[in-house]
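Ticket #4471: structure output looks truncated?

Reporter: J.K.
Steps to reproduce: submitted the chain below (218 residues) through the standard prediction queue, then opened the result file.
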Amino acid sequence: MSVSGCLLSEEISHYLQQIAPIELPVLQRIRERTALYRKSQMAPPAETVRLLTFLARLIRAENYLEIGVFTGYSSTAMALTLPENGHIDACDINITHTQLAQQAWEEAKVTHKISLHLQPAWITLQHLAEQQKTYDMALIDGDKLPIAHYFSGCLKLVRSGGLIVLDNVLLNGRVANPNAHSDSIDAVRAFNQALSCDSRVEVVILPLGDGVTVCMKN
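Returned output as attached by the reporter:
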């Protein structure tokens, strides 16, 4: 699991970890298990998840949408943060990853708050829109090529004044390198540029973890 921001020195990252709030034991166990997993770099760092839960409390979120579940660290933290009547719709396509997530939810005793949608996220977004679902907050932390489509789908579902958070928007700094190209890099770079002049949202991009964008829907 990532523990430092792409723009922070190891010394500063270590200091910030030392003064960070104490992590709940159940979340620490999930993070430690994830760190042993061969794709552990896919998980959001603890500081990013602390930002998510802080924002959820700030706007008194009850309904939360997550695209990209992986091993369940962020969804577990959010489920523990939401009130007892809160609910999470969690989207992923990987059975192996989400089995670990479901184990985490059971361990944290939050399974009753979470609905897992094991299919391509764009299909789930369409179904949720047809059901006229509304969310206070959404996290986009899935594959990067369809990032613009995920954002468009979430924008239809999140209420006015609600938040859409996107993780890994800097791709380890590659989006800032004009010589770096791949389908994912080009997609994120184009999305970041378009978002800067999107009048539907207020936007702040934070150099936290691998880059976090927070959008408030107008």
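Triage note (M.O.): checked the attachment and the full token line is present. The chain is about 40% helix and 20% strand.
Status: closed, working as intended.
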